[in-house]
Design goal:
single chain; 269 residues; alpha/beta; 2-enoyl-CoA Hydratase, Chain A, domain 1; 2 domains; 7-stranded mixed beta sheet; 11 helices; 11 strands; globular; EC 4.2.1.17; enoyl-CoA hydratase activity
């Protein structure tokens, strides 16, 4: 199934190419993949490399061992009260995954807590097993809803549920997460990564990279637009799509009953 040997980003993030899909695994299993600056640098570096590679058409992220990401490493967080703004700031914005052109799928296999839950929400689509556990934890650590979670969470589960999860920090298992719309796909634990990769491979082989990147941008920008503004923007993008090559290939592949062969994404959206 693997096209080439796994690569490693300082052993903190494992990368495996599976056709047009890149599988990234957060790799601090002894700490439930707790977030550190080094892990962030490795993960975000891998995302940027993938986004710049026209042969990577979808990305899947999961965690090694029993956790997805247990949030900020408490050993690092212990001294944060004495940190300067320069020490807190990072090279890349924390919402970097939202800015990718390439679809990002999260396969949440265990605890996704605090910053780990934020990273799961940054994915475009979430798969989870019943063993997954989501919790915000911020209020229980004397923190706030960090890195845009107060914007993201209500849009997924509604204001009331977002208030509940953020204020209480209570645990939400995979089944409840699926029921309230926090994840889109609930699958057995032993099929989680395989199913998430299969979904991503469907995107990679059947969908136009230009269309997916444009739709991702529409979803993000339209969250703050009026309906009329969304329609005007979509009309301009539709006209642009009519002048592109992908619509011809999409129609031809349908009428000829064959898989489409879309051009790689080579321009900014």
């Amino acid at each position: 199934m693997t096209d080439r040997p796994a690569a490693q980003h300082e052993e903190l993030v494992l990368a495996e190419r599976l056709g047009g899909v890149l599988l990234l695994t957060l790799h601090r299993p002894e700490r439930l993949n707790a977030w550190t600056n080094a892990l962030e640098d490795a993960y975000y570096g891998a995302l940027l490399e993938a986004d710049a590679d026209p042969d990577v058409r979808a990305i899947v992220v999961t965690g090694a061992g029993r956790g997805f990401c247990a949030g900020a490493d408490m050993e690092d967080l212990a001294g944060v009260g004495d940190a300067t703004d320069e020490q807190i700031d990072r090279p890349h914005p924390r919402h970097l995954p939202l800015t990718l052109h390439t679809p990002l799928v999260a396969a949440v296999n265990g605890a996704a807590a605090g910053l780990g839950m934020v990273e799961a929400l940054y994915a475009d689509v979430r798969f989870a097993s019943p063993r997954a556990v989501f919790l915000t934890a911020f209020a229980q650590r004397g923190l706030v809803a960090e890195y845009g979670m107060a914007w993201l969470l209500p849009r997924l589960v509604g204001h009331g549920r977002a208030s509940d999860l953020l204020l209480s920090g209570r645990r939400v298992d995979g089944e409840e997460a699926a029921r309230i719309g926090l994840v889109e796909h609930l699958v057995p634990a032993d099929e989680l990564v395989e199913r998430a990769v299969a979904y991503a491979q469907g995107l990679a082989t059947s969908c136009s990279p230009w269309s997916m990147a444009t739709i991702k941008s529409q979803l993000l920008l339209d969250a703050e637009r009026s309906f009329a503004e969304s329609v005007r923007s979509a009309d301009a993008l539709m006209r642009e799509s009519f002048r592109g090559s992908d619509i011809a290939e999409g129609v031809a592949s349908f009428t000829e009953r064959r898989p489409p062969v879309f051009a790689p994404l080579t321009k900014e959206i």
